[in-house]
Amino acid sequence: MSSKDAGVDDLDVTGAAAHLAADLGGLAVRLGMHDFSGLSDDALLSVTQELERASRRVQALLVLAAGAVSDRCLGVPSESLSGRRGCRDGVELLQRVSLLPGSVVR
Length: 106
Description:
Elements: H1 10-30, H2 41-72, H3 81-84, H4 90-98, H5 102-105
Helix pairs in contact: 2-4
């Protein structure tokens, strides 16, 4: 099994994810990180709705990415992605990458 599918460009996908993180950081700066007090009621509700929509999309992508990491951690430990990165299994690797506790990663 190949660890890379045809047609998927590592730089494009990684760059898109980095772009998203930068865009969200810029939005946080423009909004004063936690200050929504200057928004009208309608704008506040619209922003909340759009942020939740973005959150669902990001969560869906995280689930797909975690599944792909988990798949690559199967098999002979020394040859698996987790083994090559010095982890016991996919859960430990995902914990290290995501900085989330095992209870969330599982």
